[in-house]
Amino acid sequence: MQEMAEAALVEAKALVKRFGDFEAVRGIDVEVRQGEAFGFLGPNGAGKSSTMRMIACVSPRSEGGLRVLGMDPDTDGPKIRARLGVVPQEDNLDVELTVRQNLQVYGRYFGLSRAHVRRRAAELLEFAQLTDRAEKTVDSLSGGMKRRLTIARSLVNDPELLLLDEPTTGLDPQARHLLWDRLFRLKAAGTTLIVTTHYMDEAEQLCDRLVVMDGGRIAAEGSPAELIARYSTREVVELRFAPGEQEQAAERVAGLAERVEVLPDRVLLYTMAGEATLERAHERGLRPRSTLVRRSSLEDVFLRLTGRRLVD
């Protein structure tokens, strides 16, 4: 237990963040260990961004304990920020500078020498696969290239801890997978990652452990595999029916699965053996328009814990 505590780069105990009378973060406990990729999942308003801002030392906590890199953000904010890398949700690149200049100018903010910044910029351009765009202005880049440049810029100071807020929002699948590859490489090189994301497949791909937040509290914590095993079943059978037939179909499949969920366009059967459950549904005379047997995912866990309501 002593070893684990020493390896923790972020430790939060009963952490609270209030904005006036509104409590955005309501007493959460979090530990992020050195070298892991840790995720915050949750609907809008769950408290993810407020937590990330406290860890990034740009928003003071209201109550509770918080240590980042072994220091107190209230008294050691500048020292902590010098050892962090931050990738904001929205790219905030300097569009009037070239790709290379964005890296070099940012590096100078950390007091790094010009020679060091030039070397580091060349390394990061290669890492982000932007070497051939080095002398182009940011305006000429695609969305995926801008995102890669933003991540590269956050690495100028060789951070021990990298905070990524919705790193692939708005990107096409090819750009997302390329970014995942870059993040895998960072983690393999020893960088600790903290990620917020709305993409469940991204969380499954990137995160060793994660917490699901809802209403400012932690609803669940564990590895993606642990959470799926704890809150879902091995497989899910999706039965699609014509509009208005779902409720009657749900009655007819009663007892076939550990849990049955009725949606406007389909019925979901949560089961350990999907094909066998589907066969038994057919034996009861059900003839859905289409069927699908799939493995349970983190999205099933997320929706069970936080609900399917739309949160603005």
Automatic annotation (TrEMBL):
InterPro entries: AAA+_ATPase (IPR003593), ABC_transporter-like_ATP-bd (IPR003439), ABC_transporter-like_CS (IPR017871), ABC_transporter_ATP-binding (IPR050763), P-loop_NTPase (IPR027417)
UniProt cross-references to Gene3D superfamilies, sorted A to Z: P-loop containing nucleotide triphosphate hydrolases
PROSITE patterns, A to Z: ABC_TRANSPORTER_1, ABC_TRANSPORTER_2
Keyword terms of this UniProt record: Antibiotic resistance, ATP-binding, Nucleotide-binding, Transport
Molecular functions per Gene Ontology: ATP binding
Cell compartments where the protein resides: Cell membrane
UniProt entry tagged with the keyword Transport: yes
Domain ABC transporter: from-to ranges: 10-240
Record keyword DNA-binding present: no
Membrane topology note: Peripheral membrane protein
Subcellular location, principal: membrane
Similarity comment: Belongs to the ABC transporter superfamily.
Protein name: ATP-binding cassette domain-containing protein
Organism: Amycolatopsis ultiminotia
